[in-house]
Design a protein that fits this description.
The chain has about 90 residues and is mainly alpha-helical. The chain has a domain of about 40 residues. The protein contains 2 helices and no strands. The protein starts with 17 loop residues before the first helix and ends in an 8-residue tail after the last helix. About 0% of the residues are buried. The mean pLDDT is about 85. It is found in: Mitochondrion inner membrane. It is a single-pass membrane protein. InterPro entries: NDUFB3.
């Protein structure tokens, strides 16, 4: 079985993200240096992970309407099933 995955070049992970630069500055104030910080740069890549506002926007505008619709359909079905089980349901009501 072949895959189309290609190992990314290590040079593509730069420390351009503000959170990583802030981390480097905090360590520099303490007189420390993190030689492995490039290993964490992939976490801030917009191709892989989205920022919190983008993530929430994706949930509320893409997933929430479907969830609300499914909740309404489920509650309608439950109510009609309860009416049918109690003998209150007839096709004339529809």
């Amino acid at each position: 079985m072949k895959t189309d995955w290609k190992c990314p070049d290590w040079k593509s992970y730069t420390l351009d993200h503000p959170a990583l630069q802030e981390h480097v500055k905090k360590l520099a104030k303490l007189g420390l240096r993190d030689p492995w910080i490039r290993n964490y740069a992939w976490r801030y890549s917009p191709k892989i992970y989205k920022s919190r506002p983008e993530w929430f926007r994706g949930i509320y505008f893409k997933r929430l309407p479907h969830g609300i619709f499914l909740g309404i359909v489920a509650s309608f079905c439950i109510n009609k099933f309860d009416q049918w089980r109690k003998g209150e349901f007839s096709l004339k009501q529809l």
